[in-house]
Amino acid sequence: ELEKLANSLNNIFILPNDITLSYAECGSENAFYNPSLKKITICYELMEKIATTFYEVTETEEEYIEGVTGAVTFVLYHELGHALVDAYSLPIPGREEDAVDRLSTIILLEGDPVFQRAPLNGAIFFLVSTGSDDYQFWDEHSLNEQRFYDILCLGYGKGISEYESVVEKGLLPEERAERCPSEYQRTFASWNVLLAPYTKN
Question: Where are the beta strands (DSSP E) in 50-184?
Answer without folding.
Answer: none
